[in-house]
Amino acid sequence: MQEIIVHLRNELSGKLTPSRYEHTISVSFTAAALAMRYGCDLDKAELAGLLHDCAKHYSNETIIKKCEKQKITLTEDEKKAPAVLHAKYGAWLAETKYQISDPEVLSAIRWHTTGRPDMTLLEEIIFTADYIEPRRYEAPDLPLVRPLAFTDLKECIYQILKDTLDYLNGKGCYVDSMTNLAYDYYKQLHEEKRGN
Questions:
Q1: Organism's domain of life (predicted)?
Q2: Is residue 5 a contact partner of residue 47, using CB atoms and an 8 Å limit?
Q3: Minimal CA–CA distance to 129: which of 64, 56, 38?
Q4: Would you call 125 exposed, middle or buried from its count of C-beta atoms within 10 A (0-12, 13-18, 19+)?
Q5: Residue 90 neighbours by CB distance under 10 Å
Q6: Quick one: pLDDT at residue 138?
Q7: Residue 30 is part of which domain span?
Q8: Does residue 98 fall inside a structural domain?
Q9: Any idea what the CATH number is for the domain that residue 17 is in?
Q10: Residue of 1, 16, 23, 2 whose CA lies nearest to 55
Q11: Can you give the chain as a three-state secondary structure string?
């Protein structure tokens, strides 16, 4: 597995911008750290982290065209929030171009932008690592969510989704319905934990 990871790092360094590549490496290492903490497969976490943005160097318009060409079904929801589409196309790329056959890894790539209700542990780790990695500075409440990621992953995801929705709604951006469904699911866990 390590040979594959080293090969993919070299491959991606030539495709992604320097800042996107730095983010990718950082997500990969953060995912590995979270995997150590929660007993998830290290190789899978590092691999999914490495490939989570493998389609990010394409514009939203190009991704839509490529999805149509490859007969990848896009919902109206996804077309209205095209910033999330690199995850769907990235999962396809990871499978077809980079020969990743592990469904857990592909699913973690697929859901890293919107999240979804009842994510697997690997999906939760990649979703979280993408948000908290050390190269991220803009997101609100990072000093809160970063340590929370290592003590209560589901609560951390609730906070990330809450902050994301507050940000998107505040800017008047269209929100993919899967993000709302993920938020509702993790909010319910949050409320149950607090006895509400």
A1: Bacteria
A2: yes
A3: 38
A4: buried
A5: 24
A6: 84
A7: 2-139
A8: yes
A9: 1.10.3210.10
A10: 16
A11: CHHHHHHHHHHHHCCCCHHHHHHHHHHHHHHHHHHHHHCCCHHHHHHHHHHCCCCCCCCHHHHHHHHHHCCCCCCHHHHHCHHHHHHHHHHHHHHHCCCCCCHHHHHHHHCCCCCCCCCCHHHHHHHHHHHHCCCCCCCCCHHHHHHHHCCCHHHHHHHHHHHHHHHHHHCCCCCCHHHHHHHHHHHHHHHHHCCC
Structural domains of the chain, count: 1
The residue type at 77? D
pLDDT of residue 139: 84
Q: What is d(CA 34, CA 174) in angstroms, rounded to the nearest whole number?
A: 30
What pLDDT does 184 receive?
Answer: 98
Rg (CA), the chain: 16
Answer yes or no: is pLDDT of 91 > 80: yes
Q: Please report whether residue 162 resides in a domain.
A: no
Check if the beta carbon of residue 179 is closer than 8 Å to that of residue 114.
Answer: yes
Domain assignment present for residue 147? The answer is no
Higher pLDDT, 194 or 56: 56
Decide if pLDDT at 1 tops 90: no
Quote the tokens at residue 160. 């990330």
**Does residue 177 form part of some domain?**
no
Q: Which of 133-171 are b and which e, b meaning 16 or more Cβ less than 10 Å from the residue's Cβ?
A: beeeeeeeebeebbebbeeebbbbbbbbbbbbbeebeee
